[in-house]
Amino acid sequence: MLNTILSGDYPRSRILSVLLVAIFICLALGPFLFSGTRAFTTLGMICIFIVVVASYDVMLGYTHIVSFAHTMFFGIGAYAVAMAIGAMGSSFSAIGLGVLAAVLAATALALLLGMLSLRVKAIFFALVTLAVAFAFMSLVNQLYTITGGEDGLRVRVPRELGPAFRLIESDLYGFSITTFLSGLFTQPWNLGEVIRESVYNVRVNGRVVMYYVCFFFSLGMFLLMLRMMNSPFGRVLQAIRENEFRAEALGYRTVYYRTATVVLAAVVTALAGVLFALFNRYVNPENTLDFELMVFILLMCVIGGMGTMYGAVVGATLFLLAENYLQDLLRVIGGLVDGVPLVSGLVGPERWLLWFGVLFVLSVYFFPKGMVGQLRVWADARRRRRETG
Amino acid sequence: MSEPILTLSGVHADIDQYHILHGVDLQVPRGELTVLLGRNGAGKSTTMRTIMGLTRLRRGEVRFNGESIGGLPTPEIARRGIAFVPENMGIFALLSVRENMELAANSGPIDESRLEWIFRLFPPLKRFWNRSAGNLSGGQKQMLAIARAIIEPRELLLVDEPTKGLAPAIISDLVGAFEELKAQQATILLVEQNFNFSRRLGKSVAVMDDGRIVYTGQMADLAEDDDLQKELLGLSLGAHA
Amino acid sequence: MSAQYEMLDREVAQGFRQRFSQFREHRPHLFLLALMVIVPLFFMDLVTWVTLTVSGLAMGLMLFIMASGMTLTFGLMSVLNLGHGAFISLGAFSGATVIVFWMGDLAGSGSLGATMLALLAAFVFAMAVAGSLGLLFERFVIRPVYGDHLKQILVTVGGAIIIMELIHVIWGPNEIPVPRPNLLRGAVILDDAVPLIGGVAVETYRLAAVLLGLLVYAVMSWVIDRTKAGILIRAGVESTEMVEVMGYRIKLLFLGVFIAGSALAGLGGAMWSMYQEIITAHMGETLMISVIVVIILGGLGSIKGCFYGAILVGLINLYVGYLAPVFAAIATVGLMVAILMWRPQGLIPVIKV
Predict the structure, then answer these.
(1) Phi then psi for B21, rounded to 5 degrees?
(2) Spelled out in words, what is the top-level CATH class assigned to the domain B1-81+157-241?
(3) What ipTM score was computed for the predicted complex, to two decimals?
(4) What is the rounded average pLDDT for all residues in chain B?
(5) Which residue of C has its CA nearest to B104?
(6) Residue pairs between chains B and C whose CB atoms are closer than 8 Å
(7) Which domain holds residue A95?
């Protein structure tokens, strides 16, 4: 059963398995384990970005195609649904049309990029996609009459996905892990009180419904891509990555496979973009198309571990937690060294990206396989030690 | 006989995952032309590239003038006095003939009298001095490649298959040039498939097969011995001699 | 008789057509440049055209200065430095520091000598800062990943993030206005009496940028064409191995080129800062797009190609920006896509792709 679900591709490391199960539980029960809007938003973003990063990993990790146009496809999805709703009013048929438009536009553009990449060396592909993505963003910025320009578009989701809608009339109960843990450490003698404080009411409204749409989409897409990467198709991609010439000599038209990969990644990301628009209810160039976002996706993929799929889960979760909470930590550290001129500048809360950049460069040098790859290396070493010793 | 200028002992080298040299032992005597023969894929070119440090030495030792040069960076090896003409000649096609020569003279400006001597050996180089080297014919490119190697006096010349793909008339020009170098007591290690060419030039000879040296001796002896030729090279000179 | 003439006509026409297609194939850069300059003439009056062309040249030459380093590092060692944009930003901030904070009085004085001194100091400082960082960048970020394009892309993107964050740390997160020196404000206006183009107004700074850009191109061409270092660079672009066989340490050469390229990126950034009169840490990122288009257009590794590519990008930006501002960025990238379809190796390729 598990073998079928995971397509025989297990985490292959005990620590990784524990981590993945923990992430799965936290996401599955998300709204019932973490209270507050900030946590809720972070959870939703993790679900969406797992898909975005996993689809990026299909290109980067499994095929060594470096594309900087991933955000473009994400933005296509987000803008397609936002513009469809803007034009037709908030209804599920508008969403359906948006999805259709997103898939078609993403496919067409990905095919175009794939064809272009036939003409140039693989290394150029990165540069070409970078330029094309930039042109796309500037077009979105310029055509403000239909895209809202830099101000972006507000997405009026159907009532069933909004806060006013109640799936279940009565509230359910949630148990806040964060409250519980902080209480456990600060006042362990008051366990009963701590537990009582940790319980909170969860109103099962349209937002929660929307969250679960994201969650199941994320789960389904992830398992689907995991399956594909462990299918003959995925094996060919890896063969192309290892030795394109040999794969071609074996009779695989590498061009088709590369193009198919780019299209696949583009469509999946566009769908993730659709969900982003519906979940975030606000779309602008900065949150969907920006180069910085593209770099973030790259960071998530590499730090998590390229070519492992699970790396996308770990990378996206870690990065989004860092983006949202590392700043708090740095604020605390910054408070300690306040007044020391340069140092306080380096550890200020807004400098979290600096440290992620350093972490990123170091991880490319020392852990090129990312966290997942490294955990597997350690697990293998342990297994071998046990067998020999 | 004086100590050899170059000694390879037990040299192993790989290209990617392929193990090419399996313990090459070779000595190049000072002041002579040594020919390295062998079938395609025997490892002759790799031996030369390993001497130059272009292919990484995995095991064994390369001694030049009594000092170990194995594992040194290529420029350092070159500066010690080894010039190398690779199989593809390594001409800078977008540079002019003059610029090619200026680069080759790595210790300073070109010595005019030596240049005159080279022009006598290879007259076309003078004619096309300021033309781009990419426009030269195959034979002229080979002349330029050899000229670059001798523009300054070097202690050892490594030349990889200079006759490859050249017309017979040009080959005889090259023979003349090599004869002149020999007359000047230059030390040369020549990889050659063309046995007729190498027989006229070589004093000592080594034959490689499958990444090892399988025969060393005097060229005169090998040229005499039809059976040995057949055994080592799979050809007989009887018809040509 | 008439039949004879007809044949002659046809021959002449054929000959012309042949020459034209030869010109297009052998001098694609000049062909494109001519096309680029002539076509807009049909859509605007001459005075506007002159103004736009000079401005386009100014922008193009600044882009050339920024892009030249990147194209050479790729040509020489096949190193793709996506962090190049960060050096542009760094140069802009360093130059602005001199011109605004350290020598603000000199720059504002209006005397020629003082202005020149301040500008020179700003440019030299920008080049020195960017160049020294280039040294560190090459040694610690790029050297460990020679020969691995994927890792190069990753670490240089990471390195760029670090540099940009450091800019934030040093200069603060806000935009910094960079006023031009007094002497370079305003515009040069041609007298109305000048036939055809009387009344043309060109900003003084753009003229100065064109002059400086041409000077840099001239110096660079001289170095590349005439000096031993230049011969080595061109030789290295063809074959690093043979350069080493001839006894030259290619890594040292590359380090030198990388430092020079970074310094030039810094110079370009400093020039750009006064052109835009405002700078942000992210300006390099945006400029990188144009830089990438430039080097793809020109053919990676080619200084001459880079020069023409940059001018083409500058011109198309200005012309389209005037005719249909919405499509300025699209036009630049469209130009790149079109060229890639026509000549995937770029206008003046030097390396075998």
Answers:
(1) -100, 130
(2) alpha beta
(3) 0.90
(4) 88
(5) C246
(6) 58
(7) 12-167+204-290
